[in-house]
Design brief:
This protein is mainly beta. The protein is about 5% helix and about 50% strand. It contains 5 helices and 17 strands. It has a 16-stranded antiparallel β-barrel with strand order 2-3-4-5-6-7-8-9-10-11-12-13-14-15-16-17. A hairpin with a 3-residue loop joins strand 15 and strand 16. The longest helix has 10 residues. The radius of gyration is 20 Å and the shape is globular. The protein starts with 6 loop residues before the first helix and ends with a strand.
């Protein structure tokens, strides 16, 4: 039904929506007064076995995948003026599939931002960047709690080119922190052409309040666990996106709106280092597409309906070799509003082996269900995955 949200696009988006700055990792090289360059890199790889997913269709598939290869570059050219330039090697990861999905050439520009960072309360970024959104989209894969966090419908800028790329879009964001309140709001190109013949802009906003400790992320980005390093955290976020004529076809456009509430609670238990984490999110999308638009191959067809997920995790207090174990359980449910499209769900059970927070961790997980990032039912299968990520 949703031809622009093909399986190839879904898999690409799942793997490479990512945090766009190197502030969490990398090395800084000073080159003069208020001038410096920061460089870093990120890499994710996994082995996955999926039920009945072999080419023959009756045996389990077994694949090794490079899920992300990324270079981070940032710098400062003035006390209050910085820049970010990050890339993803699409063809290194996906080869011909990247070209078929329209994702670009060998190396894609993820982020290209001029950053006027004037004060904690008021900053302006312009260029290509993540649109302010819910926590999982601000995490990217590198700063999520679970390995498979993209199993609820994603926003327009995650549709691989029609309305931005890999969670990013060209535009401007104003952001800041006032006490324990954080805000980010911006205007972006949104869907280009197609239903948007009037060239309307996409408005994107995220508001968050930190009831306990402040989360220590760059700008308006997020993480879904701090492994106890941030102390006790309880943050509630509210995200909103809208664009007139933001979905559908040129002949049958509709307005798009999304409202999302996300919650993160992390509690350090005693002095031994045990950490309890809860993450939850509720999304509602209003995209009243007609039957004619849904059947049109040119449709920029976004999800319509409700979705949610909830995750609980506990980091064990005792060291286990080089790191610590963090088992977790995550449940997902997607409820499309389109006639004839059924609900979907997915359960993920796994654990992280945390060696150096988000910079070095291993993951083992088992998933079962049919939910995916389109919001519409996919293949109902079970899978086992072993993953590793590293950042420098």
């Amino acid at each position: 039904m949703f031809k622009n949200l093909s399986t190839t696009r879904a898999l690409l988006t799942l793997a490479i929506v990512g945090l766009p700055v190197a502030a969490h990792a990398g090395a800084t090289i000073p080159i003069g007064d208020d001038h410096s360059i920061t460089v870093g890199a990120g890499f994710r790889t996994a082995f996955t076995s999926r039920e009945d997913a072999s080419p023959g269709g009756t045996d389990d598939s077994t694949t090794f995948d490079i899920e992300s290869v990324r270079l981070y570059v940032g710098g400062s050219i003035h006390e209050k003026v910085k820049f970010t330039f990050n890339t993803e090697c699409m063809d290194c990861v996906f080869g011909q599939a990247a070209d078929e999905a329209g994702a670009g050439g060998d190396i894609d520009v993820l982020d290209a931002i001029v950053q006027f960072e004037l004060s904690p309360e008021f900053n302006i970024w312009m260029g290509r960047m993540l649109t302010p959104a819910d926590r999982i989209e601000m995490n990217g894969p590198y700063y999520g709690l679970t390995w498979n966090q993209f199993t609820v419908p994603l926003l327009p800028s995650d549709q691989l080119g029609d309305a931005g790329l890999l969670g990013r879009d060209d535009g401007v964001t104003v952001w800041g922190t006032i006490g324990k309140f954080q805000y980010a709001t911006g205007l972006f190109d949104g869907v280009d052409g197609g239903p948007n013949q009037e060239d309307n802009l996409l408005w994107s906003t995220r508001l968050a309040y930190n009831f306990l400790n402040m989360e220590g992320n760059p700008a308006y980005y997020t993480s879904s666990t701090y492994f106890g390093g941030a102390g006790d955290v309880f943050t509630v976020g509210l995200s909103f996106q809208s664009q007139d004529s933001g979905a559908g076809t040129a002949a049958d456009p509709v307005d798009f709106e999304a409202l999302i509430v996300d919650v993160l609670f992390e509690k350090v238990l005693g002095d031994d280092g045990g950490v309890f984490t809860f993450e939850g999110e509720y999304k509602t999308f209003d995209t009243p597409l007609s039957a004619a638009a849904l059947s049109d191959p040119s449709c920029f067809c976004l999800f319509d309906g409700d979705a949610y997920f909830a995750t609980v995790a506990y980091q064990l207090p005792a060291d286990f070799g080089m790191g610590r174990l963090q088992p977790y359980l995550r449940v997902t449910s997607n409820e499309p509003g389109f006639a004839g499209v059924g609900d979907s769900d997915l359960t993920e059970i796994g654990f992280n082996y945390v060696i150096n927070a988000h910079n070095l961790r291993l993951n083992f997980n088992y998933t079962d269900g049919d939910a995916n990032l389109t919001g519409n039912p996919g293949a109902d299968v079970s899978a086992i995955s072993i993953g590793m990520q590293i950042q420098i």
